[in-house]
Design a protein that fits this description.
Blueprint: E1 2-8, H1 25-40, E2 46-50, H2 62-71, E3 76-83, E4 95-99, H3 104-121, E5 125-130, H4 134-137, E6 143-150, H5 156-160, H6 163-181, E7 191-195, E8 199-203, E9 211-216, E10 220-230, E11 233-238, E12 243-245, E13 251-255
Parallel strand pairs: 1-2, 1-3, 3-6, 4-5
Antiparallel strand pairs: 4-6, 7-10, 7-13, 8-9, 8-12, 10-11, 11-12
The protein binds zinc ion (ZN).
Zinc ion is lined by residues 9-10, 25, 81.
Length: 256
């Protein structure tokens, strides 16, 4: 089981920590972190320890955050932020990732995660950097702090205001963590059949004489009723409501 400790930097009401238009940094951080957690749970053998207050009401102290990650024996720690340069609008821009100076496991984690965040945000790459930040110094596991973009950038704020980009960035972060550990996706529990013969009849009802339409090799259908006996053979029912043979000479059954 891979344990991922992740937190959105600050709290909703933390002073400073807002765009020149008054938007809260935590809100942007939270969008990415919430998406990351959602997408991480699409993988097997992973659990998430959230370090900030998911309601945003409290700005959880940094020591409380690192204690929580350390006590849970988290495997990695990700602290998610958005930057500010001057507090007034400007054209500075880009994504950067920090690790603790000299931490080889922190560097390795940063190298595996950072390019995905740069790509998802679609901003310039400010690179991987080092800093003596509490979250990086006081955590016992490989730790990174990501600055997705600048809240006081007229370029970056457009990305941060786009919920689809925030979601996509969370998905990229989850995907990068998953690939770092070689995590496999959970099964959706859905079953499918693929037609493996050139052409094959479907049936309107569970009756071999009630022919409907012909389907072709390579077509894939979602199974809504599993294999059941019909007049000496077997059928599936597919999503359109039609029925089809379950004979493995004609259809390949799989779950995903
Ligand atoms: Zn921050």
């Amino acid at each position: 089981m891979v344990k991922v400790a992740i937190g959105a930097g600050h709290g909703y009401n933390t002073s400073g920590k807002r765009s020149p238009a008054g938007e809260r940094e935590w809100s942007f951080n939270n969008k990415v972190v919430t998406a990351t957690v959602k997408y991480l749970y699409e993988y097997q053998n992973v659990s998430v320890i959230r370090l900030d207050d998911p309601t945003g009401n409290t700005d959880v102290a940094l020591t409380t955050r690192t204690n929580k990650a350390n006590n849970a024996n988290a495997d990695i720690l990700v602290s998610y932020h958005h930057n500010a340069y001057s507090g007034s609008w400007g054209s500075w821009t880009g994504t950067e990732t920090y690790h603790y100076p000299g931490s080889s496991s922190g560097i390795a984690l940063a190298r595996n995660i950072h390019p995905s965040i740069v790509n998802a945000m679609g901003l310039s790459d400010r690179g991987i950097k080092t800093a003596n930040f509490h979250m990086l110094r006081e955590s016992r596991m490989p730790a990174i702090l990501i600055e997705g973009g600048f809240m006081d950038s007229t370029i970056d704020i457009k990305k941060m205001r786009d919920d689809e980009i925030m979601d996509r960035t969370g998905k990229a972060l989850a995907g990068a963590i998953a690939s770092y550990y070689g995590l496999q996706k959970k099964s959706s529990g859905k079953s499918y059949i693929e037609i493996v013969t050139e052409a094959l009849w479907t049936y309107n009802t569970a009756n071999w004489d009630d022919k409907a339409v012909v389907v072709n090799k390579g077509e894939v259908f979602t199974v809504i009723k599993d294999r059941f006996p019909v007049g000496g053979g077997y059928m599936y029912q597919i999503k359109s409501g039609l029925f089809i043979t379950a004979n493995s000479n004609y259809v390949r059954y799989y779950t995903k």
